[in-house]
Write a structure and sequence with these properties.
Largest sheet: 5 strands, mixed, barrel
Strand order of the largest sheet: 1-2-3-5-4
CATH topology: OB fold (Dihydrolipoamide Acetyltransferase, E2P)
Order of helices and strands: HEEEEE
Distance between the termini: 52 Å
Oligomer: single chain
Radius of gyration: 16 Å
Number of domains: 1
Number of helices: 1
CATH class: Mainly Beta
Amino acid sequence: MAEETQTEARENPRKIREGIVASTKMDKTLVVVATDRVRHRRYNKTVQRDKRLYVHDEENDANVGDRVRVQEIRPLSKTKRWRLVEILERSR
């Protein structure tokens, strides 16, 4: 019974984002632009906010323009805190 409560409390709270690969110039690192749509607090207009995420890509698999899914991880470097989970759609 004690094991069940530990596993329930330790569910994975890591964030998952989707975005477009903007740069692959670094070795084993991607820059992904994740776009978030939020409502403006006062004017209620939908606003798009972009966030540039530095993503670890072990096999240098993704290319510029690919749609990817990334997951939050422990810090790997000064700026890199995400890892590539899967490539959703290849660029043409």
